[in-house]
Design goal:
heterodimer, A: about 325 residues, alpha/beta, TIM Barrel, B: about 270 residues, about 40% helix, Amidohydrolase family protein (chain A), carboxy-lyase activity (chain A), TAT_signal (chain A), Metal_Hydrolase (chain A)
């Protein structure tokens, strides 16, 4: 399999960073330089909002140092989708995301449409080298067509499956051959989840979710059946009860959790770290760029842990199939 | 100068919060360079008599000189309580600069005559009325929590009744909570109103909820946008990143967002 380089992405990111810095002060630049040396010195010290390294002195426009530091981390967005690609790249650049794993969710999830979706993604990956990683869309209900499509997409360089939506719960047997094929290809599979009250407790509204939307319990089941699979539970912050997710996914030690979603409640990532450990968390945005980055910056993590979540953990999942980036 | 128009202290009954004291909030403000924060006491949502929460906040703010310099306390007023007017006047005399109302949590219609009277009274005292569209994302609500949110049509309907009051819309939703009628939009455009930035994205591509700082600016103008964090509910980094990467705003517009607009409203 191909080993990717990120030279193009890195250059584009630098351009984006320059644009960003163009709006800022010289003092801001100075803070950025200091930040780099601080990064090395404090590799194993917690640096989030609740670490003990705060001076207690008022720092004029102190947030700018945090933003600059946030942009500097190397990042792969494990959960993103298609859209206006130039706007997406501009958005990625502004928050320092080099790579985004994208899938297309347009149209009813029929074999004809999921093939079209995957063609859109394959085209974007080629058109914007070094910025996007392809994710394959299938509907597990069409077993034969789905398996053929997985083979086609992986052969053409897609790095994983997902986001598989809510046609079926993650523990539904229709997933078995799909997951087995992913195991064969050594690629991850990302499945949508939303732990909304009405999905795990009778008598409450499901707030826009389907009855087949996966909740954390379903990931526990499928994780137990296929411990060797690289299964990712979608978006801790995608709506739903993230405390529920953290508690229940303790029982799925082989399942990963992406950090995306519009919800960026304080303490969310810290709780995920406490219950699941840093190594199972994958930085992602699901098109929410600032919350994606901000929630990781706010968490009480060491530099090493931040780097793992922003980049290394997901990149490690891409390694078995040789799809990792440098 | 940087002013946060949307912060809280106090307890939330449905999950633990951190950074929810004046001491903690001040530490954050120092680190991030926030000069002042408008702060209300969450407990006022849940106490039967919200005035108890206002008294707690008043005592806390007055316990240290630096708190008085850095915090702008807003009173929580529940107009359903027969003594709301007395509470409002007490808070005003104690130096509180504005009010927060919670029609859904306090179970009254935003057009309830008592609410309209409260807003008129706040107007007469030159106290802005701040209204959170919601406190949580309903997708993650507790079974004990409320099950609806306000939108900008609700806000516009209140503004229509008291057009000369001053308003702050918190947890501003420009996606699902947008003003969906031309009348609402027209009312909000000419109102003396500020929308906070906590939910709006500064990058060109917006997510599921469709929030966009550029959309807010294009719709309502830069004079109606003010920086807010919604701390301690939302992580304290995201709101800063949103505005920092909003490259479509020049330095002058950012100054208005960071403090200029709210300084004008509060006459600071």
């Amino acid at each position: 399999m191909k080993k990717r380089t990120e030279s193009t992405g890195s250059e584009a990111n630098k351009m984006g960073r320059r644009k960003f810095l163009g709006n800022s002060s010289a003092a801001f630049l100075g803070m950025g330089v200091t930040g780099i040396s601080t990064l090395k010195a404090m590799e194993n010290q917690p640096v989030g909002m609740h670490s003990s390294d705060h001076s207690g002195l008022f720092q004029e426009r102190g947030f700018e140092a945090m933003v600059q530091k946030a942009i500097q981390y190397k990042k792969i967005d494990a959960h993103n989708h298609t859209g206006n690609f130039p706007d997406m790249i501009e958005s990625m650049d502004r928050v320092g995301i080099q790579w985004a794993a994208i899938s297309d969710l347009q149209g009813k999830n029929t074999p004809e449409n999921f093939r079209k979706s995957n063609d859109v993604v394959l085209k974007a990956v080629k058109q914007y080298p070094g910025r996007f990683l392809g994710k394959c869309r299938i509907n597990p209900g069409y077993t034969k067509e789905a398996l053929e499509e997985i083979d086609r997409c992986v052969d053409q360089g897609m790095v994983m499956l997902g986001e598989l939506y809510d046609e079926y719960k993650a523990n539904d047997p229709v997933y078995y051959p799909i997951i087995e094929r992913c195991i064969d290809h050594k690629v991850p599979i990302l499945i949508h989840s939303a732990n909304i009250l009405g999905l795990w407790r009778e008598g409450y509204p499901k707030v826009g979710s389907s009855i087949n939307t996966s909740i954390a319990d379903h990931f526990v089941d499928i994780g137990k059946r296929y411990p060797e699979a690289l299964i990712i539970c979608g978006h801790i912050g995608g709506g739903g009860d993230w405390e529920y997710v953290c508690r229940v996914l303790r029982n799925a030690p082989t399942v990963y959790l992406d950090t995306s979603g519009s919800v960026s409640d304080e303490g969310m990532i810290d709780m995920a770290v406490e219950h699941l450990g840093v190594d199972r968390l994958l930085f992602a945005t699901d098109v929410n760029y600032e919350t994606g980055v901000g929630k990781i910056m706010s968490a009480n993590l060491t530099e090493k842990e931040r780097k793992k979540i922003f980049f290394e953990n997901f990149n490690n999942l891409l390694k078995p199939a040789g799809n990792h980036v440098n | 100068m940087l002013i946060d128009i949307n912060s809280y202290i106090g307890h939330w009954p449905f999950r633990p919060l951190r950074g929810n004291t004046l001491e903690d909030l001040l530490q954050r403000m120092d680190e991030f360079g926030v000069d002042k924060s408008i702060v209300a006491n969450i407990n006022g949502i849940f106490y039967k008599d919200a005035q108890g929460a206002n008294e707690e906040l008043d005592k806390m703010v007055k316990s240290k000189t630096i708190f008085q310099d850095r915090f702008i306390p807003f009173a929580t007023i529940n107009p359903v309580l027969p003594w709301w007017e007395e509470s409002l006047n007490t808070c005003h005399q104690n130096g509180m600069k504005g009010i927060r109302i919670y029609p859904i949590y306090h179970e009254y219609d935003i057009l309830d005559p008592r609410c309209i009277e409260l807003v008129k009274a706040a107007r007469d005292l030159k106290m802005p009325v701040s209204i959170p569209l919601r406190m949580i994302d309903l997708r993650q609500r507790s079974w004990l929590d409320v099950n609806s949110v306000l939108d900008l049509n609700h806000i516009a309907s209140l503004v229509k009744q008291v057009p000369d009051a001053q308003y702050m819309v918190l947890d501003m939703r420009v996606g699902s909570g947008r003003a969906s009628t031309a009348e609402s939009l027209d009312i909000l455009k000419i109102a003396d109103i500020l929308f906070d930035t906590v939910r709006a994205s500064g990058v060109p591509t917006t997510g599921y909820n469709g929030e966009s700082l550029k959309g807010m600016m294009d719709t309502y103008g830069p004079e109606k946008i003010a920086f807010g964090t919604e701390t301690p509910f939302t992580d304290y980094c995201t709101p800063f990143i949103r505005v920092a990467v909003f490259n479509e705003a020049d330095a002058g517009v950012k100054e208005k967002i960071y403090s200029g607009n709210v300084r004008r409203m509060l006459r600071l």
